[in-house]
Amino acid sequence: MGQTIIEKLWEAHSIADLGDGNQLIYIDRVFFHERTGSIALQGLEAAGRTVRNPEQVFGCMDHIVDTIPGRTDDTMVPGGSAFITTTRKAAHAAGVNLFDLGDDRQGIVHVVSPEQGIALPGLTLVCPDSHTCTQGALGALAWGIGSTECEHAMATKTLAVKKPKTMRVRFTGQPGYGVTAKDMILHLIGRHTASGGVGYAIEFAGEAVRALPMEARFTLCNMAVEFGAWSCIIAPDQTTYAYLAGRPYAPKGHTWEQALAYWQTLPSDDDASFDKETVIDCSALVPQVTWGTSPQHETGIDGIVPDPADEPDTNHRQSIERALEYMDLEPGTQLAGLPIDSAFIGSCTNSRLSDLRNAAAILKGHKVADGIKAICVPGSGQVKKAAEAEGLDKIFTAAGFEWREPGCSMCFYAGGDNLGLGKRTVSSTNRNFENRQGPGTKTHLASPTTVAASAIKGCLTDVRTLEP
């Protein structure tokens, strides 16, 4: 029987069976950010331990930092500046790599890691952030951990992990105009619920996945955790290799050729068996949007708000009722045309250069509707620099968007900047939980193109209906 790519990487990194259902796994790379990494670094220092292989540990300032132009260590988040200064001091003392404010490489960890070539096919990578599964798009086995586990990984290069079950999700068919990787993953979650992937490491496969450019693959993998998955992966191919070639931390010269030869052995064998298989036909998809307070509360942009009375399961019915109460929506409401107050493009899900290009293509020649607060936050300094070189920033600002500095920004509310308390927003982020983007903020998740189209019209809008 052949092996899946997940089994191959697990076997290659397994050091010992601990006899309690866990295995000791070797960790190749550790990434952290100032919100959790400072805790892990301080824990090491307090215990008198050092970082093993500090050259393989990387950190970013992304979660607590302001994204407004002219930012400093003094952040709008209460107590936030302490996270920044503490992380900086601890990182320098430990001798690890830190992409600090003012560094062109600074940005959201899950954007910076691939664009720097830190995440690579065949590696294990952990970060104290749930969306670390993003790196699986490169063929890495990457997952989110807690601060204590981060401390252990930095000190020992190992972690005790229970081996997950395997699932393959095949996306077939050719998506139509306006349908993106964001729509593909939202549809999967909506169809199989936010707990559909619990206990599994998932391989995303199929012709629709192979056709995705690299940055769209990051979007797909980013939201595997919203599906409940332990992690996810896409087998590396020519798209992967072309993306990585020449990246700062990627192999060079003869080492590149050696790495490439190894990477080509990683895809799942033809006779590999998965514990579960799921198929999604993308040819029938339309742009998706959420209506509730979970990514599983989604439907096509041409859909309506569901009626809780149609749900036979009591728990699900009550969940829908609470979501509609929070979102201030009535069953049967058409989503297309629902007025919004704000629009946000950014986050580790959709803040890469291609995301900004796609949104700018919609915005060019248009203006944001009156009264709409619209913000764009590039995912990294490199993304921002490249976007400005192409003039994308001018398209955004001419349309009425604010153009910000790199960071997580309003993907989550930490007490600082917000989209308007209690306001309704359409957002390219990954979570629409209650109060996620500010107290009472009603978040509708969608792709950057849907966000851009909605900002122009001042309501949730099917990008396919927008005149060029």
Structure in words:
With 468 residues, the protein is an alpha/beta fold. Among the domains are: 25-161, 2-Layer Sandwich (Aconitase, domain 3), CATH 3.30.499.10; 288-465, Aconitase, domain 3, CATH 3.30.499.10. The protein is 31% helix and 18% strand. It has 15 helices and 19 strands. It has a 5-stranded parallel sheet with strand order 5-4-3-6-7, sandwiched between helices. Strands 17-16-15-18-19 form a 5-stranded parallel sheet. A 4-stranded parallel sheet has the order 11-10-9-12. The protein is globular and about 55 Å long. The model has no long low-confidence stretch (mean pLDDT 97).
Largest sheet: 5 strands, parallel
Within the CATH hierarchy, at the fold level, what is the topology of the domain at 288-465? Aconitase, domain 3
**DSSP helical segment count:** 15
Considering DSSP H and I runs of 4 or more, what fraction of the residues is helical?
25-40%
Radius of gyration: 21 Å
Structural class by sheet pairing and helices: alpha/beta
**Strand percentage, roughly?**
15-25%
Number of strands: 19
Name of the CATH homologous superfamily of the domain at 288-465? Aconitase, domain 3
Morphology call: globular
How do the strands of the widest beta sheet line up side by side? Answer: 5-4-3-6-7
What's the N-to-C terminus distance? 52 Å
- pLDDT < 50 runs, ≥5 residues: none
Looking at the overall shape, the CATH architecture of the domain at 288-465 is: 2-Layer Sandwich
**Mean pLDDT over all positions:** 97
What's the CATH C level of the domain at 288-465?
Answer: Alpha Beta
